[in-house]
Amino acid sequence: MHRSQYILSRTSVGVRGIARPSVLWGWLACLLLPFIGLLVLQPLEGCALTVDALASHQWHTLWTGHLLHYTAEHFIWDALMFVVFAVLLWRQEGVRLWIWMLLAAPLISIFVFWVEPGLQEYRGLSALDTMLFTRYCLGLCRGGSSMDRWLFGVLPVVGVALKIGYEFWSGATLFVCDLGVGVVPLPSAHLAGLVLGLVWGLLSHITYGE
Q1: Which residue from 150, 159, 157 is spatially nearest to 135, judged by alpha carbons?
Q2: Residue 92: what pLDDT?
Q3: For the range 152-160, what are the long-range contacts, defined as Cβ-Cβ under 8 Å and sequence gap of 24 or more?
Q4: Domain containing 175: what range?
Q5: Per-residue pLDDT tens over the stretch 84-143
Q6: Are the beta carbons of 130 and 193 closer than 8 angstroms?
Q7: N or C: which end of the chain has fewer CB within 10 A?
Q8: Nearby residues of 193 by Cβ (< 8 Å), 6 or more positions away
Q9: Helix, strand, coil % over all residues of the chain, rounded to 5
Q10: Residue 147: what pLDDT?
Q11: Are 98 and 203 in contact (CB under 8 A)?
Q12: Neighbours of 9 (CB within 10 A)
């Protein structure tokens, strides 16, 4: 096959792959989920992940709490990161993306309340964002040149770890400036997301060779 024909053939396959209904529906779900949290769940008191909710056995809040946010700035940062990296991972992971998020959400919730005994409420997608970002970067550690693997795979993960270390040290967030009155950053949640992203990437490599 002539080289130009090969390129056209590969391009055609790629376009058909992008146009598959399952891919489009997956992308749409990734896009809509943060806004479902904002427009549907945010006004509902029964969706807040609080100490009282857990004491009342409202276990659904272990998931719904991640879709709630304290301020508009908090939502914008979290939603932007979530949509970008969920969409990027959907092509690679498919249903596994949602399985991991469904498993990770309650694990993060439980961990945060365990290590933060004075915590009254947890909100935000940032821990899941950290997991998605870490998993995506680990995927870039395979294939390509050695420099590409380090530049786009290893260094961003190291950067996230340093960011979390800064948050522990300073007691402040690096990006979101306005979390609301009385709300403190929770780097422990981001640490949980980082660890889960590393585990996800390692298991994917062992199980699927990805």
Answers
A1: 157
A2: 86
A3: 157/194, 157/198, 160/130, 160/133, 160/134, 160/190, 160/194
A4: 3-208
A5: 999 999 988 999 999 999 999 999 999 999 999 999 999 999 999 999 999 999 988 877
A6: yes
A7: N
A8: 104, 108, 126, 127, 128, 129, 130, 131, 134
A9: 75, 0, 25
A10: 78
A11: no
A12: 11
pTM for this entry: 0.85
pLDDT at 89: 94
Residue from 196, 189, 197 nearest 114 by CA: 189
Give me the amino acid identity at 192: A
Question: Tens digits of per-residue pLDDT, 166-207?
Answer: 999 988 777 676 676 567 789 999 999 999 999 999 998 888
- Count of the separate structural domains present in the chain: 1
- Greatest CA span in the chain, whole angstroms? 67
Rg of the chain's alpha carbons, rounded to an integer? 19
CATH number, domain with residue 75:
1.20.1540.10
pLDDT at 60 over 70: yes
**Could you tell me how many residues make up the chain?**
210
Q: Are 197 and 204 a contacting pair, CB within 8 Å?
A: no
Q: In 10 A of CB 133, how many CB atoms?
A: 23
The 10s digit of each residue's pLDDT in 96-109 is 999 999 999 999 99
